[in-house]
Amino acid sequence: MLVLARKASESIMIGDDIEVRVIAVRGDQVRLGIAAPRHVPVHRREVYEAVLAENRRAMESRQQAAALLAKKMCGAPAPKLKSDKGAADNRDGERGGAHRAGGDS
């Protein structure tokens, strides 16, 4: 890690297009200004870590959904969910309603 000393209004450059400027120093708090291209994400560490955690949860959820879909497509029974019972009842009702008297069958 590179450690630099800077005073208020001084800056450092990261590469050719990222500037980090010391805006103010008040007690133990330093205010920084960061100028970076729009394609370079800039986050406080706690926000960055929260985004990473949410992305991990979303990926796990997608992987679980893909595994369930693969099981269902391969003919393996999918785990029963509370909403599956209602869906099965509706499908049975639709099948019964398709054979109406006097209709085209």
Describe this structure in words.
It is a single chain. This protein is of the alpha+beta class and 105 residues long. It has a domain of 65 residues. The chain is 43% helix and 19% strand. It is built from two helices and three strands, in the order βββαα. It has a three-stranded antiparallel β-sheet, with no helix packed on it. β2 and β3 form a beta hairpin. The longest helix has 29 residues. It is elongated, with a radius of gyration of 29 Å. The C terminus is likely disordered.
* Helix percent band: 40-55%
Query: Termini, distance in Å?
Result: 77 Å
Q: Largest sheet, order of strands side by side?
A: 1-2-3
Number of helices: 2
Order of helices and strands: EEEHH
Q: If you average the pLDDT, what whole number results? A: 80
Coarse structural class: alpha+beta
Gross morphology is: elongated
In percent terms, what proportion of residues is strand?
15-25%
Biggest sheet character:
3 strands, antiparallel
Low-confidence stretches: 86-105
Q: How many distinct beta strands?
A: 3
Taking all Cα atoms into account, the compactness measure Rg is: 29 Å
What's the gist of this structure?
The protein has 105 residues and is an alpha+beta fold.
List the helices and strands and how they pair.
Elements: E1 11-14, E2 18-26, E3 29-35, H1 45-73, H2 82-97
Antiparallel strand pairs: 1-2, 2-3
